[in-house]
Amino acid sequence: MTNWQPSRFQTEDRYHMANEILCELKNKYGEDLIAAAIEGSTAKGTDCPESDLELRVVVNGRASGWYPFFYKGMFVGISFSSLDKIHVKSTNIDYEWCVKGDVLFSSKILHDPTNLYDTLREKAKAAEEQADFDGLIRDALADLYEHVYKIYTIHESDVVTGAHEARQIAYWATMCVGLKNRHKFRSSRSMYHESFQLESLPHDFEQSIKRILSLNTDVQRLKSDVGDLWVSTNKWAALNGITLEESDLSFL
C-alpha cells in the first residue's frame, strides 16, 4: 500500500502562483489578454490544503478549452475562453445552475482592464431574472428518473453500478431542490448539507439522501430507498406545478 498523499498548499500559495502564471500570460499575450480570474474553492474561500487552483483566462485569438497541469507541485487548471464564448456562457442558465451559477460572481479578478467581469455579471443577473426555473426543474426531474429506473435494472450483486447510480440520483434530486429554492450551492461537496436547510423540500428528503449516499451494499434496500425518494420528489414537484406527465400529448 502506498503512502502517497497530494501536495499541500496554503491559500496564499495559490494566490502567489496565480500571479506568477498571470505574469507569464501578460508576457505572452500582451494586449490580447483581456481578463484573468481565480475560480472555484480558492475564490470562494473554501479551499483546503489539498485543493487545486482554477483559473479563467480570456484571450483574443486563442481557442477555448481547458488545460490541466502541475505547477511547482500544485495542480492547476486553466479554462481558456474566447470573448464570444464567455459572453454566451454568462447568459447560459441550465439545470445545473445551482452549482455553476455563482462562478462569475465568486471569481477573484486578477486582471480585467476593460471591466469585462462587470458586464458579464450584469448579463448573468438579467438572464437569471428571465430564466424559466420551472422548466429547469422539470429537466432535472427527468434526469433524476433516468437514473431511478436504472437502479431497478441492475442485479442485486452489482453493488458497483448501484453505488454509481445512487450518487447520480442524490445529485439530481438535490438539483431539483436547489432550483426550486433558487439556491446556489457553495460547492458540489457541500451541496447536500446545504440542501437540507432549504425551505421547500420533498417529504423525508434529508433522511432519504443520507440513506442513498451511505453506499449500502444491499442493492434491494437501495432500490426501496430510491423508490421512496422518487415518489416523494415527484409528489413535491407536482405540488409545485411541475410534472413529467403529458398523457394528452398537447406539447406536440
Give structural notes.
This is Kanamycin nucleotidyltransferase C-terminal domain-containing protein. Pfam families: KNTase_C. The chain is an alpha+beta fold and 252 residues long. The protein has 2 domains: 120 residues, Beta Polymerase, domain 2 (2-Layer Sandwich), CATH 3.30.460; 106 residues, Nucleotidyltransferases  domain 2 (Four Helix Bundle (Hemerythrin (Met), subunit A)), CATH 1.20.120. The protein is built from 11 helices and 5 strands. The protein has a 5-stranded mixed β-sheet. Strand 3 and strand 4 form a beta hairpin. Helix 7 packs antiparallel against helix 11. It starts with 10 loop residues before the first helix and ends in a 13-residue tail after the last helix.
Map the helices and strands.
Layout: H1 11-29, E1 33-39, H2 40-44, E2 53-59, E3 65-71, E4 74-81, H3 83-90, H4 97-100, H5 103-106, E5 108-111, H6 116-130, H7 133-151, H8 159-180, H9 191-195, H10 205-213, H11 219-239
Parallel strand pairs: 2-4
Antiparallel strand pairs: 1-2, 1-5, 3-4
Helix pairs in contact: 7-8, 7-11, 8-11, 10-11
What is the succession of H and E elements? HEHEEEHHHEHHHHHH
What's the level 1 CATH class of the largest domain?
Alpha Beta
With helices defined by DSSP (H or I, 4 residues minimum), what is the helix count?
Answer: 11
What is the residue-averaged pLDDT? Answer: 95
Structural class: alpha+beta
Number of strands: 5
Helix content percent band: 40-55%
